[in-house]
TrEMBL record:
All residue ranges annotated as the L-asparaginase N-terminal domain in the record: 9-195
GO BP annotations listed: asparagine metabolic process
Domain of life: Bacteria
Biological source species: Longimicrobium terrae
Family, similarity comment: Belongs to the asparaginase 1 family.
Enzyme Commission no: 3.5.1.1
Name of protein: L-asparaginase
Residue intervals of the Asparaginase/glutaminase C-terminal domain: 213-326
Keyword Hydrolase recorded: yes
């Protein structure tokens, strides 16, 4: 981090999102419009806590952030750190903050803090939360205690680990949560306070993430059609949001077996918001059968987190399913 006698140097990367939006009367809704500099101008006092530089990455709504753009954003973050910035703050659309935060947290090999923020209300609304969120993000990025904690999401005065963050509400300001472990800390009257240690795995940084990797949600009465279609159309891996502890209807099993026989990775997570998957049940379609068959278990990861994890793991290890299993399961399951 920077010398205590100087303000830390912080790079602001603006990517768009609701924080950059205004209502367009002709279109009848909010669209990206504000630059990073314009958003920063709405944050009084920001220049007192950091020496700031703004770089415009783009003005993308959250749903327009593809995996390729997220990887380009990672490169922009890495360039900023190589340029000597003490931390990086990213303004981002909230619809895909989960995926971007997970990707950056798992793949950036640096102790400098990377903080993602955004807004749940656009700048045409009286309750625009963008400026307060950006100030809180800057407070975290300039905190000495933020070093070594990887990528974090800061919204509504809470600090959440990037690899744990889940969007839990469609419009509430406090939507971003870590359902299993809670926040790392909070911002309070200009100070970042951390109350627990970060849970981080070793950096996983391929030359590029492997795509496509598909995500299929399992429901009552599901069959193998979507699972088999993913295999037949060339996906390099698949994540199944299974039922409960990691179980599927019997009719899904033949599709999983085809994936395993083809030597491509299948990761099992749960559609439940909290808890981990485990091979507890030995009935047909139960987690025990799936694991014996060769499926990989995704611990506490959500489906969208496991999808990014699998993209990174396949990007590093190619078709080596045993190596991919080692990365994804991280020693949390007995052989």
């Amino acid at each position: 981090m920077a010398d205590p006698g100087n303000r830390p140097r912080i790079l602001l990367l603006a990517t768009g999102g609701t924080i950059s939006m205004q209502v367009d009367a002709e279109r009848g809704g909010a669209v990206p419009r504000l630059t990073g500099g314009q958003i920063l101008a709405a944050v009084p006092g920001a220049e007192k806590i950091a020496e700031l530089e703004v770089r415009e990455f783009g003005r993308y709504p959250g749903p327009h952030m593809t995996i390729e753009r997220m990887w380009e954003l990672r490169a922009a973050v890495m360039r900023g750190l190589a340029d000597g910035f003490d931390g990086v703050v990213v303004t981002h659309g909230t619809d895909t903050i989960e995926e971007t935060a997970y990707l950056l947290d798992r793949s950036i090999p640096s102790d400098a803090p990377v903080v993602i923020t955004g807004a749940m209300r656009n700048s045409s609304e009286l309750s625009w939360d963008g400026p307060a969120n950006l100030m809180a993000a800057l407070q975290v990025a300039t905190s000495r205690e933020a070093a070594g904690r990887g990528t974090m999401v800061v919204m509504d005065e809470e600090i959440v680990q990037g690899a744990e963050v889940v969007k839990t509400h469609t419009e509430a300001a406090g939507t971003f949560r870590s359902p299993n472990w809670g926040p790392l800390g909070v911002t309070d009257k200009g100070i970042a306070l951390f109350y627990r240690e970060s849970r981080r795995k070793a950096t996983l940084a391929p030359d590029t993430p492997a795509t496509p990797v598909d995500l299929v949600k399992i429901v009552a009465g599901a069959d193998a059609r979507l699972v088999e279609s993913s295999l037949d159309t060339g996906a390099r891996g698949i994540v199944l949001e299974a039922l409960g502890r990691g179980n599927v209807p019997v009719a899904v099993v033949p599709g999983i077996r085809r994936w395993v026989d083809a030597g491509r990775p299948v990761v099992i997570t749960s559609r439940s918001l909290r808890g981990r998957v485990l091979d507890t049940y030995a009935y047909p379609g139960g987690g025990h059968e799936l694991r014996e068959m060769g499926a990989i278990f995704g611990d506490h990861m959500t489906g969208q987190q496991a999808r990014i994890e699998l993209m990174l793991a396949v990007g590093v290890h190619g078709g080596d399913v045993a190596a991919i299993r080692s990365v994804v399961e991280a020693g949390r399951y007995a052989d």
